[in-house]
């Protein structure tokens, strides 16, 4: 009985996948741009990681500096370790933003160059066929 259920479940899952993929009609332009973007997918994943690091460091910086300033206002004391944590988070945030921008710029440049080379080769091919 379990075998027949698992086979039915597998068939149902496969049919659901087929229906989902069959429902998505991509234009040739979307397929073309998707191929160009997939070439740089590793860089975009790395950029997402830098974005997460940026967000975490932003929260850490806000927490540390809020504690420093609240201690100064309420208790007239100064917490040097919390200030160091806040400044480290500020530095980490700046470096992660810089890295993310560099990676995204590089990926964008590679996509543009790939697009340009395909366009030039296509236009050259059309010129050889006699289209002007």
* Class by SSE composition: mainly alpha
> Main sheet, how many strands, which sense, barrel?
none
Helix content: over 70%
Strand content: under 5%
The count of DSSP E runs of length 2 or more, i.e. the number of strands, is 0
Q: What is the average of the pLDDT values?
A: 84
Distance between the termini: 68 Å
Quickly count the helices: 4
- What is the global morphology? elongated
Would you write up a description of this structure?
The protein has about 130 residues and is mostly helical. The chain has four helices and no strands. The longest helix is centred in the last third of the chain and has 50 residues, at about 80-130. The protein starts with a helix and ends with a helix. The mean pLDDT is about 85.
Topology:
Blueprint: H1 2-23, H2 28-39, H3 41-75, H4 80-129
Helix pairs in contact: 3-4
In short:
The protein is mainly α and 132 residues long. The protein has helices at residues 2-23, 28-39, 41-75, 80-129.
Essential attributes:
single chain; 132 residues; 4 helices; 90% helix
